Amino acid sequence: xxxxRRQYLAAxxxxxxxxxxxxxxxxxxxxxxxxxxxxxxxxxGSFDPAESMLKRTVGAEYRYxxxxxxxxxxxxxxxxxxxxxxxxxxxxERKERAIRALERILALQETDPASKWYGIWGxxxxxxxxxxxxADWNWADFNGSLLLMIENRHGAALPEALRNAVRQAIHHxxxxxxRRNVSMxxxxxAVQGSFVxxxxxxxxxxxxxxxxxxDRLRRFAATVDETGSFAEYNSPTYANVTIENLTRMAQVLxxxxxxxxxxxxxxxxxxxxxxxxxxxxxxxxPPMSRSYNTDIGAPVWIQKAxxxxxxxxxxxxxxxxxxxxxxxxxxxxxxxxxxIALLFLEPxxxxxxxxxxxxxxxxxxxxxxxxxxxxxxxLGSVNRGDFWIQRRPLLGFFGGASRPAHYVQxxxxxxxxxFTSALLYTAQERGQVLGAVNFRTPGGxxxxxxxxxxxxxxxxTRMRLIAEIxxxxxxxxxxxxxxxxxxxxxxxxxxxxxxxxLGGAKLFFQSRVAVxxxxxxSVSIAREAGKLTISLDLLESPGLVRWQEAGEAYAxxxxxxHGANGSLSDFNSAMAKIAFGETHNGGISQSHWGPLALHAxxxxxxxxxxxxAYQGMLNGKPIPLMRLSDERLV
Length: 634
Fold this sequence. Notes:
Elements: H1 5-14, H2 29-44, E1 47-48, E2 53-54, E3 56-58, E4 71-73, H3 76-89, H4 92-106, H5 138-154, H6 160-180, H7 187-204, H8 207-227, H9 236-252, H10 256-276, E5 277-278, E6 283-284, H11 300-305, H12 315-319, H13 338-345, E7 351-358, E8 367-373, E9 377-382, E10 384-386, E11 394-398, E12 406-414, E13 417-418, E14 422-429, E15 432-439, E16 458-460, E17 463-470, E18 477-480, E19 483-485, E20 492-493, E21 497-501, E22 506-516, E23 522-528, E24 531-539, E25 543-545, H14 547-550, E26 553-562, H15 568-576, E27 580-585, E28 588-593, E29 596-601, H16 607-613, E30 615-618, E31 621-622
Antiparallel strand pairs: 1-2, 3-4, 5-6, 7-8, 8-9, 9-11, 10-14, 11-12, 12-13, 12-17, 14-15, 15-26, 16-25, 17-24, 18-19, 18-21, 20-23, 21-22, 22-26, 23-24, 27-28, 28-29, 29-30, 30-31
């Protein structure tokens, strides 16, 4: 059923107006039709009629929750979204295919209330929830929300038996969400699950579920009120999930009190993104709590929300499926509140933005981000975080609105994979950062919870802090202690002062203290997988690492970014003149660099102890804590 080009264009002209169509601005129903039909056509090529599901090949790389490697699989969530889009696109053949897909996917849900996995699905047909490593309870939220969209928009057109089965599956998913009762700091799932239970309560006329749904949304709003912002902060992927589900609420729910509260949360979510939007690079300026790709790419949902006043793709590109865009963008009435829209459209003057994300009981400092949004670049850091692969705790963008993005991302790698037990503590003012890296124990390896580091130690060949630079010129100018060097010139002393002309901005990095037991840390500059890297190697002796025997293991560094103007030599000299000092006091490193000061622990310890040891200061005083908004949601 894959469309020819002629059939596709004919269907495009005949496709019905979707609920997401925007009237009175630059986004018209034609754009929604283009997204919908290109998404359907793209998925058509992956449809497996033998299973009535989409299929895809997964590689050998590590992935959370699943053991499936190097094989063909049939994903439940993607197939369910495909069924929704088939019903949207219309036509007898599409409806029949959607019905077959729905029947197949509904049969894969765990429906026994006594089951540990009640109400969820496995990621794949080939790997039911009990066989996963471990199961992902979010699939009740994700698949439940898709079933609710199917019921809301197409339930009346389904065969009666199938519609009843869809409603029963929604019931199971909603009660799975309720049973799990996820923490309200899990922002995107807290909101998506709230949509599921609220919409299910209305659909099923379930007063008990209605009471839970109302309480849940109020608890989420109260969690936001603790800081004025979101625990799952500034996430390119999950900010969309959050706003997507708040938009679903506005389109599906009828209860006025729920809609009012959801509307206030929706406005706050957009304000949060707008305050971090860097107009020059068209990126969300860091830090980010969760991100699957450092480059935000072409977020067409933001383009739609802004009524085409910010363009990532032209209509003809969307008709061709470029860039690949979720078909549900066509169904949802994405809207950025008008006053906030200006933050995405007008660059304004360079500014600094601080924002508290997570509260903490004294003496622990709340989690706060600092972001500098300059003319040529943006740079952001979180005051305390970790190096899980999904984090972006220290990151800068430069080079205009180029795609792929030009960026400097700091990572901590163990054998070339991001090491979650490595922690970052920072103090930032404008384009300058004073940072410290240390380690937590107990802690995770590749994931915070799913693969804990063994208590007896772990094998490692190489452990390093790297600045990974994407977009540096091929003939990049690099100074090491003021002298020109080239990538691959060999090891340098760990304290080497490094300055790089990024071709659109300038970067300064210097490791001031580097200790890892008896190791002798060093710095190197290289080209790796198409990126320029500056590596501070703490461990280069393969063997077993035991935290209890490591003694001190930490690093203190200074970092600065500057605009494109001026020479690299002058920038390097100016940075070299800023006074730095570091002392020890009872296992605490006390460092200062210009107006910035930072306290951090020097030995591996529990995360609670590492957080208590941290303090960031500016001009001799604690860095001020700033709320995104003082207005309370509840």
